[in-house]
Write a structure and sequence with these properties.
This protein is α+β, with helices and mostly antiparallel strands. It has 4 helices and 6 strands. A hairpin with a 2-residue loop joins strand 3 and strand 4.
Length: 139
């Protein structure tokens, strides 16, 4: 089972500012990710640049349109992620409880954890041949 740990953005992360004690925050993140790697459950992880550096593609009846950032609601944005593969939801929950505070101890912050769909979750929605195409792509 794969899970994504999403680090919620803050006004500071959207402004491109790191926490005042960023060396300690990054050291804690490095330690945590090293533990994940040693346990063999780390797939990927990174911080994201502020939404001002990105864009959205909106789909509508007239086609697609591109909207440049920044985006207004920082509490709805993502500042980073960690992708893990574990045996169970309980194991993912345990790893997420150990996730360091992404803005520094004692400061308000939030992470969100979501399971990823696996191809077998689409058994009733997709024919096997189409699921096999995705498997061949390594998905």
């Amino acid at each position: 089972m794969r899970f994504m740990i999403l680090v919620k953005a803050t006004a500071d992360s959207e402004a491109g500012r790191f926490p005042p004690d960023s060396e300690q925050v990054f050291a804690a993140m490095a330690d945590y990710h090293q533990q994940l790697a040693q346990a063999g459950v780390l797939l990927d992880g990174s911080g994201l640049q502020p939404s001002s550096q990105g864009w959205r593609v909106r789909y509508g009846p007239q086609g697609r349109s591109v909207i440049d950032g920044p985006f207004a609601e920082s509490k709805e944005l993502i500042a980073g992620y960690t992708l893990i593969q574990v045996a169970s939801r309980a194991e993912a929950l345990e790893w997420s409880r150990r996730f360091p505070n992404p803005v520094g101890e004692g400061r308000p912050a939030e992470i969100e954890v979501r399971p990823l769909y696996e191809l077998d979750d689409f058994q009733d929605a997709l024919p096997e041949a189409l699921r096999e195409r995705f498997r061949d792509l390594g998905m």
